[in-house]
Amino acid sequence: MAGAAQQELPLWQAEPLLYHDTSRGGFVALFRTGPGRRQQCARLEALPGLLKSESGQVDRWISQGEFFKPNRRVVNLWRMPLAFSDLDTYKQPGLKGLSPEALAEHLLRTCHDRQLPEPSVIVFSGRGLQAKWLFAEPVPQAALPRWSAVQEVINAKLADLGADPLAKDASRVLR
User: Fold this and answer.
1) Residue ranges of domains in the chain
2) Which helix or strand (DSSP H or E) is residue 66 part of?
3) Residue ranges of the chain with pLDDT lower than 70?
4) In CATH, what is the architecture of 81-170?
């Protein structure tokens, strides 16, 4: 992985380097809102520098998948290094207003109770959580139907935690 580059970044900023291996070929997409709203694709090898340059910025997203062309369309998907669920907990009456730590505890209990593996990474996205299950090896594009089936199961089992039904595709960008 990114080793030294990861050490230079705060943990919240280095999180994408846990699953985007900068020694692999390919591209990721970065998206920003606000003035200068734009999407750009970057080579994986350039990711640590881009993350560092975005330090302190808000409203930034990164693709979860890796692409063989500098375009985040599913037809250009090369591989998926993880499965994920974007949990809009702020929309759930019983979860609204809980601290990130309490939400993470609730997520872990729910995963245990529903026989889902614990997520490898839990990210507080500002108003909810992102649960991410990192793979030992990325899933190639040819296995996308199986990956999508896993996404469906995960998100169905976490629906009452606010799993966003529109945020489970292979071209997704997450904050």
Assistant:
1) 4-78, 81-170
2) strand 66-67
3) 1-13, 34-37, 54-59, 175
4) 2-Layer Sandwich (3.30)
Distance CA 165, CA 66 (A): 21
CA distances 44 to 12, 24, 78, 82, 119, Å, are: 18, 7, 12, 16, 23
Q: What is the spatial distance between Cα 35 and Cα 26, in angstroms, rounded to a whole number?
A: 28
Q: Which pLDDT does position 85 carry in this prediction?
A: 96
pTM: 0.87
Query: DSSP 3-state assignment of 128?
Result: coil
Task: Give CA–CA dist 119/78, Å, rounded.
Answer: 23
CB-based contacts of 134, cutoff 8 Å, min separation 6: 18, 19, 81, 82, 120, 121
